[in-house]
Design a protein that fits this description.
The chain is an all-alpha fold and 107 residues long. The chain has helices at 3-28, 43-53, 62-77, 87-105.
Length: 107
């Protein structure tokens, strides 16, 4: 075996040991504290944060977004926690809006 092969084998073993030490060290560390899980955020609060933080970045449609939210989305979802809103509820909501649009467009 040549010297470069031996060095490469030792380097791999050393790096493997370093990784194992890092993993063992992480296991020996104190686990992160679990914080008390609160009620969570409701969609209305989330929209208020979105309105405060993101609306200044929009060019000119912020009034339109707010109007649509308050007219269509808020009555159904504003007081619901975000984590309990299901994709099925969102699909039903989307279908309802689509039907309203089609009904308004039909003569």
């Amino acid at each position: 075996m040549c010297v470069s092969t031996i060095c490469s084998v030792h380097l791999r073993l050393f790096s493997r040991e370093c990784r194992a030490f890092a993993v063992r060290g992480a296991e020996d560390a104190a686990p992160p504290k679990q914080t008390k899980k609160g009620k969570g955020i409701i969609l209305g609060e989330g929209f208020d944060i979105f309105e405060d933080k993101w609306f200044p970045n929009l060019k000119n449609s912020e009034e339109d977004i707010a109007r649509r939210y308050y007219a269509h989305t808020a009555p159904l979802f504003a007081n619901k926690p975000i984590d309990i809103i299901t994709s099925l509820q969102l699909e039903d909501y989307s279908l309802t809006l689509f039907r309203k649009l089609n009904a308004a467009a039909s003569p």
